[in-house]
Structure formats: structure tokens, C-alpha cells
Amino acid sequence: MAPAFASTTAIAPSAATAQAATAPAVTAPVAAAPASLLNVAPMATTQDAVFSGLVLSPLQSSSVDTLRLDFNFDIPDVAVAGASYTVVLPNELRPKSTAPFSVLDPDGNVVATAVWEGKIARFTFTDFAASHAKVQGKAFVALKWDRAVIGTGPGTYDLDFTGDLVPVTIQASTSGMPELPINTSRDFSKFSGWTRRDEGVIDPVGALGWRIGLPSGPFAGPITVTDTAQPGWTLDCSSLNITKGTTLLGNRSIVDPVPLPASRVVSFSCDPGKFILVLDHIGASEFINVDLTGTVTDQSARTFTNDGGFSTETGTQSSTATATRTQNGGSGEGVPPNSVGNKIFVDQNRDGLQDASDTPLAGVSLTVGRTDGLAATDVNGLPIAAQTSDAQGHFLFEGLAPLPAGVFYQVMVDRNASAAALAGLEPTIAGTGNDSGANSSTWTAVSTVDTSQGNTQDLSLDFGFVTVQTPAPTTPPTTEPTTPPSTEPTAPAPPTSPTSPVIPPATPVPTSTAATTPIIVPTAPQGPAGTDVPAQDSQASAPADQLAQTGPIALRALVFIGLTALLAGLAALALLRKSRTSKKEVSQ
User: In this predicted model, what pLDDT tens digit does every residue of 129-138 receive, in sequence order?
Assistant: First the structure.
């Protein structure tokens, strides 16, 4: 395909119309756009929109002008890497460049890549979408009127955009194909362009088109023409094409071009960096174009420069042309994820702090939750899997979604799942000191870091354990048995002589006096200092062994004597009472 050339910008050649692919329209709220750009029509809405706020400019243009389409994107948090969404162009428009392009975040990270599929722009989001929440941004593309559809004349069009966006109708118009003048002369000129709409991104070979427009003659020979490639591309020497004609449309196109006869070429030398062409002359009213293609060698470059020169016997002229890749792209951003961790350890010195003497503990299972009781999720709304401490005792929950202000993440030890790893262990002292990164928690550790803005990491959630200590058995004190004092049995005392029973006297004869005759009970005779005088009885002098033999008999005798004495006493008391009663009766 012959290149189309422009003196200042890359003008892609027209091509057959690519049929617009149909895609189901996903409706959603339309972002604010100038009212003059939109036909007012109520539409159903949903929260599943991805693209919105389409703005096309300028609304008034010629059929050869470049248009720009700007729009917003806001992808769901459930989107994962590889999720793709589309903007479908109306049939009256086509992409100016079919080169793939990227949407970047402020740090240069690729948020999404975009490719053209005919008239469909497909945006595929990278793992940026999987690792960030609330991914949103703006994108823009350069468009051209598809003259195969609208022709070259003026008109007003209702342009219907669909795809993963609200169906939007924008009114725009074209003033038609501008009229180019017929020129009869020109100066030395240099032109640049692209031979394909991918602008060398998909296929870099021969993508650049360069044209040198020699000044109109007459010029006597020799005529020396030079062309020098700048960094980023190389000359395709075999692509040299020289044409001539007598009528010039505008400043660069020959209306009736024919090949320049080979006999007119004096010499031609070329390498990837430069060519030198020598012609025999330029005739009166003759226009000569020298065309050559170039290959892109630096895909990161956006602009490519070519320096041309023209020399005759009368002087030298030069000109520079630059080919610029179409700037499609955009910018995006998202809320970075959060993470919490960090270590399980055996507190060897039992002080509640991590130090050099402690050892890591592997195989402990942990889960993460939220202090408001809701389930913790990642930035895509998916559940967070349990973690197990590694050989260094470390664990880390990554990709955590931002939480509302005042809500925090918490990590819990799963005691059942960790039973084997924690056998014989129990939590160490919790909350020792002021360094939360060195002390320990018991079973549950709560972060205090605000994650609402994302991009946080809290590595202070640690758990220390100590070995369970079994108390030593207590030995009761040993006491020597106490030997009871040895006492000799006491021989029973010999029985005393029985006291003679008291025999009451005969009832006295009452007298007229109130005196009462006392009852005298005889007692045993008293010895010196009140001691008893043993009775002078034949048994008193009996030997002790004879007394022991008569003990039971003597005891029965004592009981009998005691009872007899008691009865005698009672009888005397009764007699005394009767005597007093009788005296009272006589006195009366």
C-alpha cells in the first residue's frame, strides 16, 4: 500500500470499512457530559456499567479531521486480571490508529491494555485490577470519519455508541472533503506518514513512509538528493520509488504520476542510515516525488524523525519531517490492598517478648476477621483463606480490602487445626512492654492500623507460646511417732471399812417447847490433823493379797450399805417433817 503523507502529522490512508461488531449493551448511569453532546432520552440504568461519560470532539469537523473520544471507566471490585470490556464505535467512525495502547497509573504501572477489533476497542485489565479496589480512570482514542460510509460530502450524524456502557447518541457533523488547490510550483519539501494503521506497533517493517518533494524546475543537473534516518528507525533501501508528473494537488500529491525513467537516475547508494540519489535534471513544470519506507526499531519511541537534503549547482536546501504515533491511552488508579501478619514463636525465656533466645514455631493455623464481625475479604470481595506459619514462624494475609474507618482486622489462632503444633504449649505473657512488634497476644491479635485508604501493612500481630510446666508432687512432712509414756499400773487401793449405817432414833415425845432434838449421825473417829483412823476391825489387818481376793464381795457390800443409808436418811427426813407438823397442831 502506498503511504499517505502529511507535513506535520501522520495521516493514515483510507481503507475498506470494517464492519462494526455487535455487543449487548450494558446500561448504567451516564457520567456528566455536556448537554449539547447528548440527545436527551431516558434510559434504563444498572450498577454494572464500566464505561460512561462519553465526549466526542470536535462536534463540527471536516471529513478528514481527527476526532477525539474521551470516556470514564469504573470496573467492579469483583473484576479479576484478564477481565475485558468494550466500547463499540458507530459505523460512521473508525480508529485513526489500530495500534494497541495501554492505560497507566501515576507510577507507570499498566492498569489495562487495549486493542482494536475492527471498530471495537477492547480493554483488558491486568492484575492491577486484582490487587486494587475501586479501580477507575479515564481513556481516550483518536478517531477518523469513515469516508467509505459517509462519503466526502457534508452531513449531520447521530452517532450511537454501545458496548459495556450506556447506549449514548452523540450528534456530530462534517463539512465534507476540503478542496485542495492545483499547484504549478513548489519548494523543496519533506513529508512523513504511516503505511499502515497499526503505526508499526503490530508490524514494524515498512511502517514508516517518507516523501521528498523536489522543487519544480527547471534545474540543470546533477541533482543530489539525500535522506538520513534518525534513531528509532532504519531505511528500507529496496523500497525506493520515484514518480513524476505535471499537475500537483495541494503540495504533495501528483495528480497524474508516472515512474521516472531509470535513465534519469545517475546513481543511487543506500544503507539503513542514509541514501544518496543523483538525478540528471528537473525539467520545466516537472514535479518529482521520491518515496521510501522505513522500519521501526524502537517500539518505545513515539516520534520518528527524517532529515532530507537537496543540492544543485546553485545551492542546497534541507527539510525535516517527523512521524508521530497516534496517542491513544488513558490513566487509571485504584486503592492498594492491605496486609497483616506476622510471627509465631516459642518464648524460651518466658518473658513475653521476642528476642534472640526464642525459636520460630511452624504449622500453626490462623484465620483473619474483622472487628465488626463481618467476614474479611480481599479487594475483589473473595474470602480470605487460612494461613499456616512457615518454618520461620511467619504468616501474612495479603490483598485485604480497605475497611471502613473504625473497623480493624484481627487474626485468630485456630486451636483445633493447630492442635499438633501446639501440643504441650500454652500462651506466654501477653502485652509485655510498649513495643507491639515484639510482644505477644493470646489467641487473638487485633490490628490498630486504619486500612480505609489502603496500602497498609501491620506486622505486629504475633503469638508467643511456652511449654506447659507440670508442678512437682508435694511430699508430706515426716513426723516421728510419739511413744506414750510408760506408767506402771497402779494397784487398787484397799477398801475402807464400811461405815456403820445410821439408825434413826425413836420418835421423840413432843414437848411444849419449840426446840427440836437434832439427829446425830455417828461418824468414823478422826485421827490427828483430820486423818481417818482405820477401823479396828479384824479385816483391816488382813494381808493385801487377801484383800484383792475379796474386792468384788466388798464392792457389793458397799453398794448395799450405801442404799441402806439412803433409805434411812429418807425415813429420818419424813419423820422430822411429821414431828414439826404435830408441834404446830399442839400450839394451836
Answer: 878 888 899 9
Whether residue 183 contacts residue 251, with contact meaning beta carbons closer than 8 Å, is answered with: yes
Q: Which CATH number fits domain 182-326: 1.20.120.140, 2.60.40.740, 3.40.50.300, 2.40.50.320?
A: 2.60.40.740
* Residue 582: predicted pLDDT: 57
Least confident among 196-210, 346-360, 443-457, 469-483: 469-483
Residue spans of the domains in the chain: they are 35-174, 182-326, 335-467
Distance in angstroms (rounded) separating the CA atoms of residues 429 and 440: 7
DSSP codes joined into one string, 451-462:
-TTS--EEEEEE
Other CB atoms within 10 Å distance of the CB of residue 100: 14
The arithmetic mean of pLDDT across residues 357-374, rounded, is 96
What residues does 94 pair with on adjacent strands? 144
pLDDT at residue 404 greater than cutoff 70? yes
Q: What is the DSSP string of 127-188?
A: HHHHH-EEEEEEEEEEEEE-HHHH-SS-EEEEEEEEESB--EEEEEEE--PPPPPEES----
Q: What are phi and psi of 212, to 5 degrees?
A: -110, 120
Average model confidence (pLDDT) across the chain: 80
The number of C-alpha atoms within 13 Å of 133 and in the hemisphere containing its C-beta is 20
What are the pLDDT digits (tens) for 124-175? Answer: 999 888 788 888 999 999 999 999 999 888 899 999 998 887 788 888 999 9
Q: Give the span between the Cα atoms of 566 and 501, in whole angstroms.
A: 9
H or E element, residue 555: helix 551-587
Instruction: Identify the weakest region by mean pLDDT among 34-43, 48-57, 171-180.
Output: 34-43
DSSP class per residue in 519-536: P----PPB-GGGPBPPP-
Which residues are paired to 317 by β-bridges? 310
pLDDT, position 177: 81
Strands 84-88 and 155-163: antiparallel
Q: Is residue 295 a contact partner of residue 205, using CB atoms and an 8 Å limit? A: yes
Q: Was domain 35-174 assigned CATH 2.60.40.1280?
A: yes
- The Cβ of residue 536 has, within 10 Å, a number of other Cβ atoms equal to 9
Strands 168-174 and 60-61 come out as parallel
Nearest CA-CA partner of 320 in 12, 7, 2, 9: 7
For residue 325, how far is the Cα from the chain centroid?
39
Please state, in angstroms and rounded to a whole number, the distance separating the CA atoms of residues 310 and 319.
9
For the whole model, what pTM was predicted? 0.60
Q: How many residues does the chain have?
A: 588
| Amino acid identity, position 403 | L
* End-to-end Cα spacing for the chain: 178
